[in-house]
Design goal:
With 243 residues, the protein is of the alpha/beta class. It has 8 helices and 7 strands; from the N terminus they run E-H-E-H-E-H-E-H-E-H-E-H-H-H-E. Strand 5 (134-139), helix 5 and strand 6 form a beta-alpha-beta unit. The structure holds NADP nicotinamide-adenine-dinucleotide phosphate. NADP nicotinamide-adenine-dinucleotide phosphate binds at residues 10-11, 13-17, 34-38, 62-64, 89-92, 112-113, 139, 141, 181, 183-184, 186-189.
């Protein structure tokens, strides 16, 4: 399905990004497994893809660093001559009530979750426009939880970035969409208290937390040829939570 395609997945060392990397490789793409701090885990993802007969490379880049992203994307294009799929998945949380939130916690979350997506797209878009072909999938979220003003702002920003980029790039056949996961079982949600988890499950019509693979399936679809007439959309993968 994605044979011959080059896919970059940011934050692919763990969680949702890891599942997305495995799925796109299974679909036939050569996947660049981006990581920041978890080198060993990223190498394990690369190895797992290789064992399953897929192709992958691991590449360290802090997505919040504009110049590092320029070098990262340039290196991929130099080595492979193209870039077909960009999944902006890297993300962090620094939760806290608004009145107590530090400037650093606000800036750090915006820098990684929102500016990180801008940074990679800024450099990948030029190549995609030249190719007249590309798929961009940005990881948003179902938001509105107390104590996540920084995170919610970053994800609302992701949706705005997605729509604006979709309009800019549509005339060259490039689609830009967002996926908004609900509660997905990863390291990010592992830290939540049992009480928060119980309350959250009770608000999910399908009655369970999602799995990283549930999100990866949606990304795989949006990255496919079949999704070529879908752009500027936010696809919720949340068990019906935000109906
Ligand atoms: P996770 O398990 O905490 O993994 C986060 C990933 O992001 C890691 O691979 C991490 O890489 C990477 N990352 C963090 N900062 C980075 C940076 N500066 N540069 C490059 N990579 C960086 O998180 P997750 O739950 O899989 O979430 C993935 C995405 O889905 C995020 O955008 C998150 O906001 C979104 N999301 C998650 C949920 C959920 O319920 N889990 C719900 C809605 C949306 P290293 O470890 O290598 O640093």
């Amino acid at each position: 399905m994605l044979e011959g395609k080059i896919a970059v997945v940011t934050g692919a060392s763990r969680g949702i990004g890891r599942a997305v990397a495995l799925k796109l490789a299974e679909d036939g793409a050569l996947v660049i497994v981006n990581y920041n701090g978890s080198k060993e885990k990223a190498l394990e993802v690369k190895e797992e893809i290789g064992k399953k007969g897929g192709k992958a490379e691991a590449y360290r880049c802090d997505v919040s660093d504009f110049s590092a992203c320029e070098a990262f994307i340039a290196e991929i294009i130099k080595e492979h001559g193209r870039l077909d799929i960009l999944v902006n998945n890297a993300g962090i949380t620094r939760d806290g009530l608004l009145m107590k939130m530090s400037e650093e916690d606000f800036d750090k979350v915006l820098a990684t979750n929102l500016k990180g997506a801008f940074n990679t797209l800024r450099f990948a878009s030029r190549q995609m426009l030249k190719q007249r072909n590309g798929r961009v999938i940005n990881m948003a979220s179902v938001v509105g939880v107390a104590g996540q003003a920084n995170y919610a702002a970053s994800k609302a920003g992701i949706i705005g970035l997605t729509k604006s980029a979709a309009r800019e790039m549509a005339s060259r056949g490039i689609t830009v969409n967002a996926v908004a996961p609900g509660f997905i079982e990863t390291d990010m949600t592992e830290v939540l208290s049992d009480k928060v988890k119980e309350t959250s499950v009770s608000q999910i019509p399908l009655g369970r937390f999602g799995k990283a693979e549930d999100v990866a399936a949606a990304v795989s679809f949006l990255a496919s040829e079949e999704a070529g007439y879908i752009t500027g959309q936010v696809l919720h993968v949340d068990g019906g939570m935000a109906m």
